[in-house]
Amino acid sequence: MRVGVVRGGEVFVEDAADPQAPSSCQVLINVEAVSLQWRDLAVMRATRALEGLGYIPCSDMCGVVAEVGAGVSRVRVGQRVVAMFCPAWLHGEEISPATYRDGVPGQPKYQGVLTEKVLVDAEALVRVPDHLTPEQASCVPCASVTAWRALMTQGHLQAGQVVVVQGTGGVATAALQLAVAAGARVIVTSSQDSKLERARAMGAWATINYTTHPQWGRIARDLAADTEGVHQVVDVGGAITFCESMAAIRAGGLISLVGILSGTSTKVNLFKLIQTRARVHGIVVGNRDDLEQVMQFYKEHHMSPVLDAVYPLSDSPAAFKSLADAQHFGKVVISLANPAVACHIQKLAGSLPSMTRTSKTTVDSRFLRHAPGLVLKASKDGLGVFIYALTESLSMTLIWWA
After folding, report:
1. I need a labelling partner for 147 at 20 to 30 A (CA). Which of 50, 137, 236, 310 fits?
2. DSSP alpha helices (H): ranges in 69-160?
3. Is the pTM of this model over 0.70?
């Protein structure tokens, strides 16, 4: 089989022996798609100096059950499933730091899922709704679950409430989708007006360019003047953004700290925190209950995660570079079933009444009235054209070949 391997801070695609047959309570998965997380880059950078140590990266995948071990009743052969981000966290509120540090795939201590076949504990698997593609489903275990746990499990989001979502990455676009579907008013921040335009097309109530308006917290609070501030903030930035989150939050509101993209340390006005009685909750993805609940929500609302680009396994280095460049809108995914996916998308695109060629920087916003769908990078032996079209009769899927 083919696997992705990180060695010395670089990604390589190599041949490896197939896994052994599943033991008791294990399941063998034919992996179809793997989504990339910021954590994957962090682990890669942290292990860069370990030249001789190679490991399989990534934690989030979707695949088909190929074989089950003795005693497995949770899934059956042929079913499409995703695996949990932290396989040991099935239920409950707390997870120990050691479990999070050592119990998540995609690191030297725990081999990841960027491989054509992988053994997974059956209890860590959750069925995928039929309307989701493998590429879309692979984005749910980390990004969508994080957004769900912040907004719903901890935040108990209600229709009409105001939410600030920072950025347009995987967690942010998931939070935007979930909050809009729940009837909330969503304010999105970004440094790029083009991304803010796409966010508005997805249902954002208001948008703020934080480069133009670095003190965006007060603007968000003014926008939510009827509720005396925003009810929730999904904070992915950390150090630089936290004080602005505090400026935006209403009395008794919730700041879910889900990322530290701008750093880990900042000065906090503790009196302001006491005065607003705001809650600050650290979010470390979520448990299996959260994963099952967000999957059900996607099914009921016929929603799908936002994909920025899909690369074949052979282009894994380019996929990681795309994530590191931080220009994506939604998720970056590696498809391990690329030829089949390419044929499916080609057929789907060919069924459209019309197509519009465009570039990534000149996307016509008319095609973005609803959630963006799939971007697929053609393999070397696949197609080599750019196609951009909205399949209004086919689940509002946006297709763009790169």
Report:
1. 310
2. 97-102, 134-137, 145-148
3. yes
